[in-house]
């Protein structure tokens, strides 16, 4: 290729990828300025006992430990989280292992692989994880919502409980109604449910003697789903494909007409590039389609790179979607020229659009046509942008 635009793009992608693959840097540690004890080399952030933070607290590290007092909300993301102090606000925590042995005076929302609670939750608790357990000293003053593979509640819940899991065990007082959906539900002899127990599962709940349920016990079996017949599946797929094709046809029609109306010169230049540099357009589009997602994934692998990854993903999707218009116009232009006509941009686009969607409905081959149109249109759009940029620099417009 003679264009410097592709070399610039490929070079930028290689530099970004090499920088993101560099693993020699220490673990990322983000924390408030008032978090005075941190060890970036080990990815550890600590709020020591006796320290008070009088505002909302944010921390992201490999391990976060809170032993002091936070007079505000706490937002924590880490592989391991320990809360053994006092949070006078809400707690939002996400980690592989989350241990709460201190006090959260307001609501707590926790997600983790393993969540252990032996402290006090002043209001409501929402928790999800692979294994969830509350100790006898772990008290929830409000209502609780829990979902996990294994849920064992040995601590009291002052108000209602909504729980779902593979295995659920209740071993303390629940001061309200209990709604449970689980593979197995056991109410031990230490449990006391002040309200109704509604259970959805494969069998009946196991209620040990003298486990107490003061209200009604309602049982419902999981519904058995009927598998559709193969011909019903094929008919549904065909209808879905036709519906999607119809929506896509209308949206592409509107988008193409708008693009041609407001950017006629850019459209003509891109279609001309497709005619003159078809192979170069295909190669340029293929490079972007292959390397673009890789760069986005590398950006998303770092906490600071996630916003950039989202912007890059949105930009790449928009470019791929818009660039189809140029390739479709090129297809229509070639067809009409072959029939001895001199088409305008709108006529070429409408002709190419009909041809494109007819080809796209062909089984197996349709997917290849859609991919080829997207790749070649994207490459042509990038080459045109490169030409426009070089002309603007030559004329000292930028």
Automatic annotation (TrEMBL):
The chain crosses the membrane at residues 242-266, 278-301, 308-333, 353-383. Keywords: Membrane, Transmembrane, Transmembrane helix. InterPro entries: DUF8173. Residues 235-381 form the DUF8173 domain. The keyword Ion transport does not apply. The keyword Membrane applies. Pfam families: DUF8173 (PF26514). It comes from the Bacteria. This is DUF8173 domain-containing protein. It comes from Nitrospira tepida.
């Amino acid at each position: 290729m003679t264009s410097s635009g592709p070399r610039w793009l490929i070079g930028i992608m290689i530099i970004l990828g090499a920088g993101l693959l560099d693993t020699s840097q220490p673990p990322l540690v983000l924390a408030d300025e008032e978090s005075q004890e941190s060890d970036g080399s080990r990815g550890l952030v600590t709020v020591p006992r006796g320290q008070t933070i009088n505002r909302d607290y944010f921390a992201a590290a490999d391990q976060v430990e809170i032993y002091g007092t936070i007079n505000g909300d706490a937002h924590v993301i880490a592989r391991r989280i320990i809360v053994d102090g006092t949070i006078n606000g809400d707690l939002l925590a996400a980690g592989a292992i989350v241990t709460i042995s201190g006090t959260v005076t307001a609501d707590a929302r926790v997600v983790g692989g393993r969540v252990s609670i032996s402290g006090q939750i002043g209001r409501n608790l929402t928790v999800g994880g692979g294994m969830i357990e509350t100790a006898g000293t772990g008290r929830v003053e409000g209502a609780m919502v829990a979902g996990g593979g294994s849920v064992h509640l040995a601590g009291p819940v002052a108000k209602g409980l909504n729980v779902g899991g593979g295995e659920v065990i209740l071993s303390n007082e629940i001061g309200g109604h209990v709604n449970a959906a689980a593979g197995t539900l056991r109410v031990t002899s230490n449990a006391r449910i002040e309200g109704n127990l509604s259970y959805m599962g494969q069998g009946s709940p196991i209620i040990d003697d003298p486990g107490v349920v003061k209200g009604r016990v309602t049982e419902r079996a999981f519904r058995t789903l009927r598998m559709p017949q193969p011909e019903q599946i094929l008919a549904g797929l065909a209808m879905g494909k036709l519906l999607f094709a119809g929506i896509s046809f209308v949206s592409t029609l509107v988008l193409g007409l708008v693009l041609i109306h407001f950017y006629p010169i850019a459209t003509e230049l891109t279609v001309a590039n497709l005619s003159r540099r078809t192979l170069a357009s295909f190669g340029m589009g293929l490079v972007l389609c292959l390397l673009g997602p890789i760069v986005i994934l590398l950006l998303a692998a770092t906490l600071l790179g996630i916003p950039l990854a989202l912007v890059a993903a949105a930009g790449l999707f928009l470019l791929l979607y818009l660039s189809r218009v140029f390739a479709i116009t090129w297809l229509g232009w070639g067809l009409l020229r072959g029939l001895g006509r001199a088409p305008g941009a709108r006529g070429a686009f409408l002709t190419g659009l009909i041809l494109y969607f007819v080809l796209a409905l062909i089984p197996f081959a349709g997917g290849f046509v859609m991919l080829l149109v997207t790749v070649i249109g994207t490459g042509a759009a990038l080459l045109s942008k490169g030409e426009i940029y070089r002309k603007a620099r030559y004329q000292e417009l930028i």
